[in-house]
């Protein structure tokens, strides 16, 4: 990353890129959904300004924010690619507040992919 960009902005840009990669991989990166990502980044900018030590947690938080916003507007996302039967269910983020966030399936008890890396798991576009 550009050394002239503050660590806070670097964390926010990275979070945006990771969540967008998962949305693109899952084929749901429509304009209104990308706007949800931007809204989440704006909200988390304030949060991380208040708690700079939380910068490493912002990717998972933005992913959770987008997931919550999508649930209200479009339904569950991302759907679990691991469980082939039963009711479709969304993946969760673990840790809820921590570094190195991953999408997990609590039903199967497995880590599915790091945030930003859903493409290879869902058959979508892999991250570059």
Physical arrangement of strands within the biggest beta sheet: 1-2-3
CA distance, first residue to last residue: 15 Å
Average pLDDT, to the nearest integer?
91
Q: Counting H and I runs of at least 4 residues, what is the number of helices?
A: 4
Tally of strands: 3
Kindly name the structural category.
mainly alpha
Shape: globular
**Helix percent band:** 40-55%
Strand content: 5-15%
Stretches where pLDDT is under 50 for at least 5 consecutive residues are none
Taking Cα atoms only, what radius of gyration do you get, to the nearest Å?
14 Å
Major sheet details: 3 strands, antiparallel
Please provide the ordered H/E string of secondary-structure elements. HHHEEEH
Any chance you could write out the topology, listing elements then pairs?
Layout: H1 7-25, H2 31-50, H3 58-73, E1 92-94, E2 102-105, E3 110-114, H4 119-122
Antiparallel strand pairs: 1-2, 2-3
Helix pairs in contact: 1-2, 1-3, 2-3
Descriptive notes:
It is globular and about 45 Å long. Strands 1-2-3 form a 3-stranded antiparallel β-sheet, covered by helices on one side. It has about 130 residues and is mostly helical. Helices cover about 45% and strands about 10% of the residues. Helix 2 crosses helix 3. The chain is built from 4 helices and 3 strands, in the order H-H-H-E-E-E-H. A hairpin with a 7-residue loop joins strand 1 and strand 2. The longest helix has 20 residues.
């Amino acid at each position: 990353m550009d050394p002239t960009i503050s660590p806070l902005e670097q964390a926010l840009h990275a979070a945006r890129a990771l969540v967008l990669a998962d949305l693109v991989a899952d084929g749901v990166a429509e304009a209104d959904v990308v706007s949800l990502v931007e809204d989440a980044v704006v909200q988390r900018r304030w949060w991380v300004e208040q708690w700079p030590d939380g910068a490493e947690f912002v990717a998972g938080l933005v992913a959770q924010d987008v997931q919550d916003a999508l649930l209200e507007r479009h339904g569950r996302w991302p759907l679990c690619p691991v469980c082939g039967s039963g009711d479709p269910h969304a993946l969760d983020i673990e840790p809820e507040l921590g570094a190195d966030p991953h999408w997990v399936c609590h039903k199967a008890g497995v880590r599915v992919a790091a945030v930003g890396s859903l493409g290879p798991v869902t058959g979508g576009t892999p991250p570059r």
